[in-house]
Amino acid sequence: SNICTNEALMALASTVYMSAVGKNGIRSVATSTVQNTQYAIKVLTEAGGKLKFPNARVFGEFVLTLPKPAAEVR
Question: Is the pTM of this model over 0.85?
């Protein structure tokens, strides 16, 4: 099925990427992800957003509510 094919292709692509960037590259991407996530949280909470789980540790995803539709938050 297409799902299994896509799964295998994603696994292969991930393996190739991790092999290409190496341990330090993966660490750099992870650090950048955390920093960008923290920046997004800062900007969105300053715009009136409220974190659903304020004490949760985040890596690249978080949940928040906004005072108006997301498309209107700039």
Answer: no
Q: Which domain holds residue 40?
A: 2-72
Q: Among candidates 27, 30, 58, which has minimal Cα distance to 44?
A: 58
Backbone angles phi, psi at 50, to 5 degrees: -125, 125
> For residue 52, what are its two tokens?
């659903």
Please give the single-letter amino acid code of residue 4: C
Burial (0-12, 13-18, 19+ Cβ within 10 Å), 63 = exposed
Helix (H, G, I), strand (E, B) or coil at 62: coil
Q: How many domains in the chain?
A: 1
Distance CA 42, CA 26 (A): 24
Per-residue pLDDT reduced to its tens digit, 34-43 = 999 999 999 9
